[in-house]
Amino acid sequence: MTLKNFDQKLTQYANLLVNVGVHVQKHQKILLSIAVDQQLLAHKLVDAAYAAGADKVVIKWQDNYVLKQFLNSTTDEMLTKIPSYIKDEADTLMNEHYSRITILSEAPDSLSGVDAKRLAKYQQALSTAQQTITEATINNRISWLVAGAANRVWAKELFPDESEEEAYDHLWEAIFTTSRITDDPIKTWQAHINELSKRADWLNSLHLDKLHYQAKTADITIGLAKDHIWEAAGSTDTQGNYFVPNIPTEEVFTAPNLHDINGEITSTKPLSYQGNVLTKIHLVFKDGQIIDASAEQGNEVLQELIKTDAGSRSLGEVALVPYDSPISNSEIIFQNTLYDENASNHLAIGAGYPFNVKNGTELSKEKLHQLGVNDSQVHVDFMVGSADMNIDGITQNGSIIPIFRNGNWAE
Amino acid sequence: MTLKNFDQKLTQYANLLVNVGVHVQKHQKILLSIAVDQQLLAHKLVDAAYAAGADKVVIKWQDNYVLKQFLNSTTDEMLTKIPSYIKDEADTLMNEHYSRITILSEAPDSLSGVDAKRLAKYQQALSTAQQTITEATINNRISWLVAGAANRVWAKELFPDESEEEAYDHLWEAIFTTSRITDDPIKTWQAHINELSKRADWLNSLHLDKLHYQAKTADITIGLAKDHIWEAAGSTDTQGNYFVPNIPTEEVFTAPNLHDINGEITSTKPLSYQGNVLTKIHLVFKDGQIIDASAEQGNEVLQELIKTDAGSRSLGEVALVPYDSPISNSEIIFQNTLYDENASNHLAIGAGYPFNVKNGTELSKEKLHQLGVNDSQVHVDFMVGSADMNIDGITQNGSIIPIFRNGNWAE
Q1: Considering only CA atoms, which of A341, A327, A335 is closest in space to residue A150?
Q2: Could you write out the DSSP letters of every residue in B194-220?
Q3: What are phi and psi of A360, to 5 degrees?
Q4: Which of these, B221, B213, B220, lies nearest to B388 by C-alpha position?
Q5: ipTM entry
Q6: Which chain A residues touch B69 with a CB distance below 8 Å?
Q7: What is chain B's Cα-based Rg?
Q8: Cβ-defined contact of B74 to A83 (cutoff 8 Å)
Q9: I need a labelling partner for B47 at 20 to 30 A (CA). Which of A246, A290, B90, B305 fits?
Q10: What is the pTM of this model?
Q11: Per DSSP, which regions of A149-305 are E strands?
């Protein structure tokens, strides 16, 4: 690492994640998921968390090489046999309101070569065991954060013409820049959060019924959930703690109506999903359901994904990001959803966020379904934005309001 | 790393640990405890385990910096509140006969600065939660292995006059040499195991009642448990799998009689225990019980250790290692028990191994106690060997048989 002031910037970054991202409070407990090769960042996060008054940081160290060897070597029976303590652990941590910090750094294709069906079976079994974590997260019963970190393999894949050291520096620099690590990151973030919140307020004031997307890669009408709320930047968990769940974040997003999606759309950036890269995901919808799906690369993984459960055949999120955004302007395709989704309009296959409808976190699953909020074990964002994309908002009485023109906010 | 053939030697080392150490069988499951900065060795162990037919390797990544920050920062309540899933996890893994591989690499003083009482409280709470692991290990209900790996901080502490890279290479080289990583380590180990087993057979043929240690640092008589068995190199677990629980190993050991230890002894090498260094541990025994204890360095940690439970005031192991052994000849004080105990006669405070008496793993705790086998949550070896040490064996009828003369085997 030869990046100027790297150690200082990494400290600022860790402080931002802890104090703005998950917004650690006195006596908070934290579940940190981070790769084994991110020891320095992990230590800085631990230090920042205890400095902010945390009581405990539990680390779940990740290593996709070890996971890959397991998936490739174990028996069919062991593959889906998740020991009972995994569920007990998930239940206990969520019951005690552990906040989650998840640091993504694995290379986009770190699980390539694993049989897609075996991977899906394992993931489904694990998701079922850890369902309380997904539910607590999606309902904001805990504060949570997803952020990134550079890894040499990932860096070299993004910048193949550079030396490994150069590529690694380049990726860290891109992460610091897109995460707005300025001289005073916390002040910068307060201004940024205000800016995004104004966009959300404007969209909420329009009371839209649906959005109509038009581009070379899209002709689709996406109904919005009844009583939907556009959110941006931050959320408030059920303990009243305001947190910013994604760093970086450039999006304004809400819940689509799972009963009312019609047309077709193609993804415009590669998606890294479970260690595989999916390109040109093409989905055709009728009355909210995917009736046809294909991908140029990673098609098998896509087919397994949409077969997960009833909800994996519809959408759970619609998010607006101007084509002319800092991440997009970096012209880097990170092949990591956290970054790429914040460079582009995107949608998510699978679960919707209950907090994206009025009083949503207090409503039953049936009521949420009725309002159009999707339920699923999965939530997989894919990028659909492009420079030629126009989006119209359509209100209950049929009037049309320009939302996006040529890939950017219409006003 | 500039050590010649490092990658090849590390692969041989991993293969030795898996195929001779824990002796992985088809469909075996493995619990690997290893530090976060040992990713390369971890991957090689995982590869070797699956190549040997293992079904699953669960890794518990260790990081003493993270542990230290927790111990220094958390509340008294959280310190000893071990969540229920930790016990559930321990019970499940032992119930399913997971074999254990533990790789030690943390610097000897990696937890120094932590309040000794807080550390002891935490360790005791954790040991209680994970008691099934200790019991399964000590009773050979599973196969298990403790081995080492070099760490830059540890290396620099051992070789302060060398550069960090040189010290790191030096420590790896010492680990490979003392672990007998030759051109054919598996063949070399078979010969070594035979050699040690012959020593154990000789001691078993003597049917000794007690040992009398005499040196500048020792004048103590240690009774041996009734029906004791001298073991060396390997053990057989209750599934019938022969394994070698320590690599390296130079010792021949058995269970002392907890009712019959009298005299005093001082440790001759520094002991690294829970991230603290203890020197010149001086213990006085009467009728098997420690009646006085002190240490020149780490005295507080020693006092907490012997207060753990009833069994932590007596001994659980007596082990014979010639002063003229490969580790001793390396003239390195590793400040790590795994190596230093195999360079020196040693004793252990705390639990004895039931397999060190006839049919011991099938006997009740009461019966074991009656035979003299100690029971405790702790088992802490400390080194007592020296160049001037003489040890006499005393038989039931009072005859004296020279066992050690001037620090080495008498014959």
Answers
A1: A335
A2: HHHHHHHHHHHHH-EEEEEEEETTEEE
A3: -60, -35
A4: B213
A5: 0.86
A6: 43, 46-47, 50, 57
A7: 20
A8: no
A9: B90
A10: 0.87
A11: 208-215, 218-224, 231-232, 235-236, 242-243, 252-254, 256-266, 271-273, 276-278, 282-286, 289-294
